[in-house]
Design a protein that fits this description.
Layout lengths: L1 H27 L1 H14 L4 H8 L7 H18 L2 H21 L4
């Protein structure tokens, strides 16, 4: 009987502590900070114009030429050890891939 009562008391204490932690987090702005971080990350997506500048292509450039530029830039930055530039080149290719797919042109 004491074990059952002790378990019930402990369970309620854990539940109350959890509720208090959530209340404290919302008061200190932890939840708001997490939301702001998510908005910042979403704002880092590149647009079509920036993607074209990164890869050095125009709207008239074929998809095959874009892939050739991508491969060259990605490999050059792999050799130079610039993960940041590699990721920018990758994001640019991904952005343009979406554009070209919506036009029905990538293979």
């Amino acid at each position: 009987m004491f074990i059952v009562m002790g378990t019930g008391i402990l369970g309620r204490a854990v539940f109350q502590a959890y509720r208090q932690a959530i209340a404290n987090a919302s008061k200190t702005g932890v939840a708001q900070e997490a939301m702001q971080n998510a908005v910042r990350k979403a704002g880092k997506a590149i647009n079509e114009q920036e993607a074209r500048q990164i890869l050095g292509v125009t709207e008239q450039t074929s998809w095959e030429e874009i892939l050739q530029k991508y491969d060259k830039l990605f490999e050059n930055n792999a050799k130079a050890g610039s993960f940041y530039l590699q990721s920018k080149v990758l994001r640019a290719k991904e952005c343009l891939e979406v554009v070209y797919r919506s036009n029905g042109t990538p293979s």
